């Protein structure tokens, strides 16, 4: 796979409360090992770790110090990428199927920018103080996942634009859109959830027992 995989793994894992998530074990493997396993066919893998954290030995990846935000960590990885396509993937999403990866890659090759999304399964409400407020139409909304794919040159331009304008985004697709380029949507997968809260770890443990990608 002629693609640079960029794995931002420099977060503090504050909502989980167990330290940096890259080294958390699920089903006997760290989240970083799960992510690397999903991209085993990639020509290049770059990982951002919290500054000062020693790179693990024996893994097929290049390790760089991350930044203060996810966006800053991705920007550092992007500078080091050597291939014309990049896939940006949260280390906190251990379960990436090969089908999902191929869908994102194919749409990226065709359009320059593609992300996986899911429909919203629950009712969405804007609270009024402590009470139930206006319901927001879930039909019009999607949940955004990773891996997100881009032409490397396009994502570099988007990050440069964001730096110049002082934009701070929670994902990379937002920056490409802010630059004025379209981002294609492909179907995501519920199993590609982000390990964010303590309950997610139990789900990940259960899924790890049956996962074969
Ligand atoms: N300065 C940062 C912040 C986040 N990330 C990465 O961005 C991804 C999504 O972030 P999230 O799930 O929020 O992880 P954390 O930032 O670690 O969690 P929290 O927000 O609860 O502290 C993770 O893979 C995380 O490691 C990063 O590389 N550099
Ligand atoms: C990139 C992302 O996973 C897409 O849903 C998400 O925006 C990361 O957000 P976080 O607050 O850094 O977890």
TrEMBL record:
<feature type="site" description="Positions MEP for the nucleophilic attack">
    <location>
        <position position="194"/>
    </location>
</feature>
<dbReference type="InterPro" id="IPR034683">
    <property type="entry name" value="IspD/TarI"/>
</dbReference>
<protein>
    <recommendedName>
        <fullName>2-C-methyl-D-erythritol 4-phosphate cytidylyltransferase</fullName>
        <ecNumber>2.7.7.60</ecNumber>
    </recommendedName>
</protein>
<keyword id="KW-0548">Nucleotidyltransferase</keyword>
<comment type="pathway">
    <text>Isoprenoid biosynthesis; isopentenyl diphosphate biosynthesis via DXP pathway; isopentenyl diphosphate from 1-deoxy-D-xylulose 5-phosphate: step 2/6.</text>
</comment>
<dbReference type="InterPro" id="IPR050088">
    <property type="entry name" value="IspD/TarI_cytidylyltransf_bact"/>
</dbReference>
<dbReference type="InterPro" id="IPR001228">
    <property type="entry name" value="IspD"/>
</dbReference>
<comment type="function">
    <text>Catalyzes the formation of 4-diphosphocytidyl-2-C-methyl-D-erythritol from CTP and 2-C-methyl-D-erythritol 4-phosphate (MEP).</text>
</comment>
<feature type="site" description="Positions MEP for the nucleophilic attack">
    <location>
        <position position="138"/>
    </location>
</feature>
<dbReference type="GO" id="GO:0016779">
    <property type="term" value="F:nucleotidyltransferase activity"/>
</dbReference>
<keyword id="KW-0808">Transferase</keyword>
<dbReference type="Pfam" id="PF01128">
    <property type="entry name" value="IspD"/>
</dbReference>
<feature type="site" description="Transition state stabilizer">
    <location>
        <position position="21"/>
    </location>
</feature>
<keyword id="KW-0414">Isoprene biosynthesis</keyword>
<feature type="site" description="Transition state stabilizer">
    <location>
        <position position="15"/>
    </location>
</feature>
<comment type="similarity">
    <text>Belongs to the IspD/TarI cytidylyltransferase family. IspD subfamily.</text>
</comment>
<dbReference type="InterPro" id="IPR018294">
    <property type="entry name" value="ISPD_synthase_CS"/>
</dbReference>
<dbReference type="InterPro" id="IPR029044">
    <property type="entry name" value="Nucleotide-diphossugar_trans"/>
</dbReference>
